[in-house]
Amino acid sequence: MKIETRKIHDVLVVDMSGSLDSTSSGEAGDRIVNIAKGEHKRVLLNLAELEYVSSAGLRVILRGAKLLQGKRGELKICNAKGPVKDVLKTSGFNNLIRVYDTEQEAFSAFL
Prior knowledge:
The chain is of the alpha/beta class.
């Protein structure tokens, strides 16, 4: 599991790659919580390179979203592909957090 961040305007983009599962969810969860508790109110998870997400991984994302909502912030997801996109849909996750096909669509939705 690899997490890198980059800032574009007032949005913090979090690029996730690898697998977000029970093995990596502890460390990834700590990173996401720190990001959500940080200075940024607009966070975009770019999942283009994420190959797998488990229920433990979904909890990590949901926790980050809830923390951001608590400070009037917002978390969005973009570029989910293949099995990751399927898991987001079948779990109903896309009803809780907005999921966009591209990074550009997600940026437009922040405005």
